Amino acid sequence: MTERPFVEVRDLRRVFDVSKPWLNRMLERQDKQFLKAVDGVSFDIRKGETFALVGESGSGKSTVARMVVGLLPPSGGAVSIDGISMTDRAVSQERQRLRRRIQMIFQDPYASLNPRWRVGRIIAEPIRAFDVIQGEQAITARVGELLTLVGLHPDDAKKFPHEFSGGQRQRIAIARALAADAEFIVCDEPTSALDVSVQAQILNLMRDLQERLGLTYLFISHNLAVVRHMATRIGVMYLGRLVEVSEGKRLFSDPRHPYTRMLLEAVPDLAMVGKPREGVKGEIPNPIDPPSGCTFHPRCPLVFDRCRVEAPAVIDGVACHAVNQGRAAA
Length: 330
Known about the structure:
Layout: E1 7-17, H1 22-28, E2 34-45, E3 50-54, H2 61-69, E4 76-81, E5 84-85, H3 92-98, E6 102-105, H4 119-129, H5 136-149, H6 166-178, E7 184-188, H7 196-213, E8 216-221, H8 224-230, E9 233-238, E10 241-247, H9 248-253, H10 258-265, H11 305-309, H12 321-324
C-alpha cells in the first residue's frame, strides 16, 4: 500500500479583485477586473522531503505558500496536511491542533523579526502560544538549546535583532520556526536577501536540520542553483499554473517543458562547455489579461495552433501540447 502524502494540494486557486473603486468604474465605464494569481495547482509532498516551487517573479509561488499554511484563504481547491484539511471549516478544531506543527520562514530576515523584542522573547513566542513548555526556566533553557542548534550562542537571547547580521537573523527565524516542534516548514525564498556566501551556510544548516529532525519543506525560490542544492522534487510555475513537476536530478538533466528549458538556459555555464545558449525571451504577460490557451505560447519556440486555444493539462508531469504529442526535440 502506498503511503499517503504528508501534504496534498488539489486544484488550488486564488483570484484577487483588482478593480478600481465603484465610482471610478461608473465614470470610466469599466467592468470589474480580476487577477488569477493561482489557477488550478495540484501537487503532493511526502514526509521528510523538500518540494520546491520555482518560476519567475509573479508566477504565483508565494501565493501558493501562503494558502498552504492558511495565511491566505483559497478561492477554490483544497489543502490537507497529515490528512487534516486546511480549507474545510468543519474541522477547525483539528486544524488548530495541527497549526503548531506548521511554521513559515519568510524572505526578509530584517522585516520578519520584531525589532522591539529581544531574541529570547521572539523564539519563545511559539512555545508560549502553543503551551509547549511550562515554566520560565524551562522555556529559557529551550531557547538556549534552539540558539545552539542553529549555530548561535545561548547568550544571544538577550540581544535585539538589529545587533545581528542578515544571516544570523535568518538563523534566529529558523530557531523560531523550530520552537514549537514544527514538522512542516514553508520557506518563502529564505536566502534571497542574503549574500551568496551566507546563503550556502543557511542552506546547509536547513539540510542538516532536516536530516536530524525529519523535517518536511515546501521551498519557494526563483534561484535554480539554490533549488538544485535543496530539492527532492521540483514544480515549475508559470503565470499561476504548474507546467512541469519532476524529480530534482531529472529536471536538471532532462528538462521537458520549453519554459523549464528556457530557465535552465539562463543559468551561468560554470563548466564552460561552449554549448550555444539562449537567454530567457520575452516577459510574463499581464496576469489580469493572460493569453488564451497555453499562457506560455507567446514565448514558446514549439507553439502551434492548438496551443493558442486550449490550455494543456498536466500529463506525466508536463503541461505542454508539444511535449505530449512528441513535437518537442530532445
